[in-house]
Fold:
Amino acid sequence: MRFAVPRSTVAARSLAVLGASAALLAGLAACSEPASDAPAQAVTYKIVATGENLSQISAVAYYTTPAPGKSSVRANMGTVPLTPVEGKDAAMWQTETTVTKGSRIDVTAAPASSKTSLSCVVRVDGNEFLSAAAGPGQPVTCSTQKQGN
Structure:
């Protein structure tokens, strides 16, 4: 035995499914990160090591912007070599990048030895923006975010 479904019911269900699909697609489009007109800022991250074992640092990570107007993302560099600082008992690592204004600015690193001290400096558009120092054997962080966030 077959039951006939009125055409008006089939049409109403089809329209309901199409409407729900359109609403879902519109919602997904609204969730994507929109491009921003916020300007990019030139950011220089610098880590300076003093003490022993000045050849490298580890756990180096910093925030950078993948495209204009986007939020910053974390670039994990791992272990990086240090460059000796001429005339000083110190070595450094430095990188330049861009970050959209208002996005996270952050650099972290860990020393290679318990007798190595690290400091960090962040420059934005050529001006010192953040700086911090850590004790021997401790990691250092310069960040616009509070610790734990």
